[in-house]
Amino acid sequence: MSEGVIYEGVLLVDKPTGMTSHDVVNRARRIFKMKKIGHAGTLDPMATGLLILLIGRATRLSQYLMSLDKVYEGSVTLGVTTDSHDAEGEILSTRPVPDLDRMAVEKHLSTFVGDQYQTPPMFSAIKKDGVPLYKLARKGKTVEREPRFLRISSFELLRFESPILDIRIRCSKGTYVRTLAHDLGERIGCGAHLSALRRTASDRFSIEDAHTLIELEECSPGSLSDSLIPIHVAAPTMVL
Question: Does the first or last residue of the chain, that is N or C, have fewer Cβ atoms within 10 Å of its Cβ?
Answer without folding.
Answer: C
